[in-house]
Amino acid sequence: MRTRAAVLYEPKQALAIEELEVLPPRAGEVLVRYVASGVCHSDLHVIQGLMEWRTPVVLGHEGGGVVEAVGPGVSTVQVGDHVLTSYQPSCGRCPYCTIGRPNLCDLRDAPRFTMPDGTTRFRKGDREIFHFFQVSSYAERAVLPEHSVIPIRKDAPLDVVCLVSCGVMAGAGAVINRAHVQPGSSVAVFGCGGVGLNAIQAAALVGAGKIIAVDVFDQKLEWSREFGATHLVNARREDPVARIQQICGRGGADYAIEAIGRPETIDQAFRSVHRGGTVVVVGVAPAGTKLSLDPLLLLQDRALLGTSFGSARQRVDLPLFVDLFMQGKYKLRELISRQIGLDELNHAYELLERGEVRRSVVRYPS
Ligand code: APR
Ligand code: ZN
Ligand code: ZN
């Protein structure tokens, strides 16, 4: 079967939009026809060479689609099911899955630039093209392991709810699942991109009091107000730590979420919470980055936490955010600045880098 796809041949090159062959799903695998994919910053890290990945690769990890075929032994989805991608797999049986932390599943120990059996399903002529986190949503069709697809209700628009598959889960999960933000508390969110806006929205959803948005673009700060930010801080014009301390009193915020992925902003987030405060790092720093933090701050009961995939329980949390959206309790359409075709993907990344979009969504022809 043929598919159009966006292929990264080498870091620092443009994505090539071209036709590939997709081989049929094998045992435990699923063929998905993607309806849409969000354009997330993490793929850009790979394009820029800041995150290593096997190339050539079909990128994309925020996908929504319909199951078109299943391989032998697949039991959790069937043809016609609507699914979201889960770029972190879960087996349901390993120690992590068993204790309720399936985002950390043992399956993550295996390389995920191929299918679990070590082979690929994309071909350009004779050449193998690799997968991205076994998801590769910048393609009209892709084969995924069963453990990477999460079935969701069929009445939800896939070109909107695809955002749940990364940006929503990463930002909202950091607030709800990892920081356990309490009603009435204060939350500082560093970075108001696709991920940060979801941290802000989730803080509002759980009833946080002061929600302080920090960014370097005024436009992003204005947008964050729509999602529940109560205070806006432009870190280019003022010291965000001092400003957060002034807004919150008591030496800082109860919680800080870092949704950028830079050592300086992780340090700022760490210094912006008061004694006993909690910091959650969501942003992906370039490989090889080292942090320099004041360790004395840890001795005042501050907690510096990380999170992966919003500490999601994938099969519970992805459908949960879809439900919240369908019930009108969680904004997703407002996160989308532009709907684009696959051809416009390189341009969409330029806009993302320049801070000109919330999220772009690639919409595939049906
Ligand atoms: N201080 C404050 N804000 C900053 C700074 C800074 N020094 N540098 C960048 N920002 C802001 C940008 O202006 C932008 O609004 O951080 C935001 C990052 O948002 P996006 O580029 O849209 O990225 P997003 O998809 O939200 O991902 C954020 O989380 O999942 C990871 O890999 C992803 O590391 C990335 C982070
Ligand atoms: Zn992402
Ligand atoms: Zn597992």
The overall pLDDT average reads 97
* Low-pLDDT regions: none
DSSP summary, beta strand count:
18
Bound molecules: adenosine-5-diphosphoribose, zinc ion
Q: What is the CATH third-level topology name of the largest domain?
A: Quinone Oxidoreductase, Chain A, domain 1
CATH architecture of the largest domain: Alpha-Beta Complex
Tell me the domain tally: 2
Kindly report how far apart the N and C termini lie.
15 Å
Assign an overall shape: globular
CATH homologous superfamily designation of the largest domain? Medium-chain alcohol dehydrogenases, catalytic domain
Number of helices: 10
The SS-based structural class is: alpha/beta
Radius of gyration: 20 Å
Order of helices and strands: EEEHEEEHEEEEHHEHEHEHEHEEHEHE
Keywords:
7-stranded mixed β-sheet, alpha/beta, binds adenosine-5-diphosphoribose, Rossmann fold, Quinone Oxidoreductase, Chain A, domain 1, 10 helices, 18 strands, 24% helix, binds zinc ion, globular, 366 residues, 2 domains
